[in-house]
C-alpha cells in the first residue's frame, strides 16, 4: 500500500500569505481601536457637557440660603425680596432616603443570602431570582403606582412614609443582586472548612461569608442609595411634595427631585436658578456616594 503523497508547499507563498494576513489583522485592529476611541470620546463629551452645564448654571445661585431657607414665591422683579431655598426639600430627601434604605437593605440582604446559600439550583430560588431581576428593571413610576394603590389610597392622602416605602422597593432588588453575586464569589472550600470544624451554617454565613463579602455588599447598598436619591416619578405618586419643612411622615413631604421638577417648570428665572442649584446638590451627593463605594472596594495592601 503506497503512502499518500502531499503536495509540496512553497515557502514563498507561505510567507506572503502570512504577511497579508498580518496586514489585514493590523488594519482591523486599528479600525476597531479608533471606533472604541470615538465612542469613548462621544460618551466623555456628553458627560462633560452635563457636568459643566450643572456647574455653570448651579454654582451661580448656590449659596447658604439654598440650604437654610424654605421655598419662597418668585422674587422676580423685586431685588429686595427674600430669596427662597431648598431646606425643606433636602430634609425630605434625607428622611425618605433613610426610610427606603433602612427598610429595603435588610430585606435585600436576607433574600440575597437565601439565593446564594440556601436556594442554589432550586425552583423556588430561580423564581425569586427572576422576580428580583424583573423588579430591578421595572420602571420606577410603576413602583410608585403600586405604592399609591397599596398605601396612599388606604391612608387617605400622600405621605412621606409612602415615598420611603416606594424607595425601599427600588432598593431591594439592587441589594439582592449584589449580595448574591458577592456571596457566590466565595470559594466553596471556605464554607466546607468552617462547617467541617463543627460550626452551624448560620454561623458560617454571619461570621465568615459576610465578613469575606462585606466590601461588595456595602458597595451594593451605597449604589442603591445613589439610585434612589435622584428618583422623581415614584415620589410624585406617593409623597407628592410640599413647600414647607415637614417632619410628619403621615403628610405630604417634599424632596429634592420633586422640588427641582416643580421649580424648573415654573417659568420664573429665579426659581429656575434655584432648581439648577438643587440639581447640582443631587449630582454632588450621588458622586460622593459613588466615591465612597469605590473607596470601600479598593484593595488594601
Short characterization:
This protein is an all-alpha fold and 301 residues long. 73% of the residues lie in helices and 0% in strands. Helix 3 crosses helix 11 (256-264).
Describe it.
The protein is flat and about 90 Å long. The protein has 2 domains: 16-58; 87-297, MetI-like fold (Orthogonal Bundle). It is mainly α. Helix content is 73%, strand content 0%. The longest helix is centred in the N-terminal third of the chain and has 48 residues, at 11-58. Keywords: Cell membrane, Membrane, Phosphate transport, Transmembrane, Transmembrane helix, Transport. Its main location: membrane. It is a multi-pass membrane protein. Belongs to the binding-protein-dependent transport system permease family. CysTW subfamily.
Q: What would the keywords be for this entry?
A:
flat; MetI-like fold; MetI-like_sf; MetI-like; 73% helix
SSE order and pairing:
Elements: H1 11-58, H2 64-68, H3 87-118, H4 123-137, H5 140-155, H6 160-184, H7 188-196, H8 201-212, H9 214-229, H10 233-236, H11 256-264, H12 269-297
Family: Belongs to the binding-protein-dependent transport system permease family. CysTW subfamily.
Keywords: Cell membrane, Membrane, Phosphate transport, Transmembrane, Transmembrane helix, Transport
Protein name: Phosphate transport system permease protein PstA
CA distance, first residue to last residue: 68 Å
Q: Looking at the structure, what is the overall shape?
A: flat
According to CATH, what is the topology of the largest domain? MetI-like fold
Order of helices and strands: HHHHHHHHHHHH
Query: What is the typical, i.e. mean, pLDDT?
Result: 85
The CATH homologous superfamily of the largest domain is called MetI-like
Q: Largest sheet at a glance?
A: none
What CATH first level of the largest domain would be assigned? Mainly Alpha
**Proportion of residues in helical segments:** over 70%
Low-pLDDT residue intervals, each spanning 5 or more residues? none
What is the level-2 CATH architecture name of the largest domain? Answer: Orthogonal Bundle
Count of all domains: 2
Keywords: Cell membrane, Membrane, Phosphate transport, Transmembrane, Transmembrane helix, Transport
InterPro entries: MetI-like (IPR000515), MetI-like_sf (IPR035906), Phosphate_PstA (IPR005672), Phosphate_transprt_permease (IPR051408)
Subcellular location: Cell inner membrane; Cell membrane
Protein name: Phosphate transport system permease protein PstA
Amino acid at each position: 500500500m503506497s503512502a499518500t503523497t502531499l503536495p509540496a508547499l512553497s515557502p514563498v507563498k507561505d510567507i506572503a500569505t502570512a504577511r497579508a494576513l498580518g496586514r489585514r489583522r493590523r488594519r482591523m485592529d486599528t479600525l476597531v481601536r479608533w471606533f472604541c476611541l470615538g465612542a469613548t470620546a462621544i460618551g466623555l463629551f456628553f458627560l462633560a457637557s452635563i457636568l459643566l452645564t450643572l456647574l455653570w448654571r448651579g454654582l451661580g445661585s448656590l449659596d447658604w440660603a439654598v440650604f437654610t431657607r424654605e421655598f419662597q414665591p418668585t422674587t422676580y422683579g423685586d431685588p429686595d425680596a427674600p430669596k427662597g431655598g431648598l431646606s425643606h426639600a433636602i430634609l425630605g430627601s434625607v428622611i425618605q432616603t433613610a426610610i427606603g434604605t433602612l427598610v429595603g437593605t435588610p430585606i435585600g440582604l436576607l433574600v440575597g443570602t437565601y439565593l446564594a446559600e440556601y436556594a442554589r439550583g432550586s425552583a423556588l430560588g430561580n423564581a425569586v431570582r427572576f422576580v428580583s431581576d424583573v423588579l430591578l428593571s421595572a420602571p420606577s413610576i410603576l413602583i410608585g403606582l403600586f405604592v399609591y394603590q397599596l398605601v396612599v389610597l388606604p391612608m387617605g392622602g400622600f405621605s412621606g412614609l409612602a415615598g420611603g416605602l416606594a424607595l425601599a422597593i427600588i432598593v431591594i432588588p439592587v441589594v439582592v443582586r449584589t449580595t448574591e453575586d458577592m456571596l457566590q464569589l466565595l470559594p466553596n472550600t471556605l464554607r466546607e472548612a468552617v462547617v467541617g470544624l463543627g460550626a452551624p451554617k448560620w454561623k458560617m454565613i454571619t461570621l465568615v461569608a459576610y465578613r469575606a463579602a462585606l466590601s461588595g455588599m456595602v458597595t451594593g447598598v451605597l449604589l442603591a442609595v445613589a439610585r434612589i436619591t435622584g428618583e422623581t416619578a415614584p415620589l410624585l405618586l406617593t409623597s407628592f411634595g410640599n413647600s414647607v419643612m415637614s417632619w410628619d411622615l403621615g403628610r405630604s413631604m417634599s424632596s429634592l427631585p420633586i422640588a427641582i421638577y416643580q421649580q424648573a417648570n415654573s417659568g420664573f428665572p429665579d426659581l429656575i436658578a434655584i432648581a439648577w442649584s438643587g440639581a447640582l446638590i443631587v449630582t454632588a451627593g450621588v458622586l460622593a456616594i459613588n466615591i465612597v463605594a469605590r473607596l470601600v472596594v479598593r484593595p488594601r495592601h
